[in-house]
Amino acid sequence: MASKPTKGKDGEAPEETTKQLLHGNKCLEKEAQDTQEQSQSYLSCGAKLRHDPPDMLITLNDQNRQDLAQIQAQQEELIPRYTSKEQEVRSALQDTEASASLLDTELEQLEPYKEHKVQAEQKVKALEKELRVTRIRCAEETHAIRSQRWMGSGAAWSRGSCPCPWQWGEMGWAF
């Protein structure tokens, strides 16, 4: 006949209760080990502190006060230096602004001359164009006169009167 599994007070099988108890025991052992490690760490820190002289222990507040005092000393040293540099820069800026203002005034005074310059440039361009046209006309007229004289000299050639270079002056040719 098969034996019936016995149940504990809570109605659970004894194997399950045993597993739960073993698991709980392992957790407790791990916590105990962690606590022991923390205790050892605390004790070693305490031993270190006992070996250090009492003035070696600096609180965070003391450290902050020292840092603040150092920063204030640096500030007192830097403020005059940068104040003088600021004055130099301000002076240079004022000089530059004065120079720019003077240049603006000079530019305003030169503005009427700018219009005269533009007008003069336009007049020069017009005169250059007129000069080119005049040169072209002069060249055309000179060419026409020379070709008429050349044609006239051909008639003199046929009559037997040769327009030799020594006679060119007589004919009105001027080269």
Automatic annotation (TrEMBL):
Residues 59-148 form the DUF4515 domain. Residues 7-18 have a biased composition (Basic and acidic residues). Residues 1-50 are annotated as: Disordered. Keywords: Coiled coil. InterPro entries: DUF4515. It comes from the Eukaryota. Signal peptide: none annotated. Residues 110-137 form a coiled coil. PANTHER family: COILED-COIL DOMAIN-CONTAINING 166, DUF4515 DOMAIN-CONTAINING PROTEIN. This is DUF4515 domain-containing protein. It comes from Zosterops lateralis melanops.
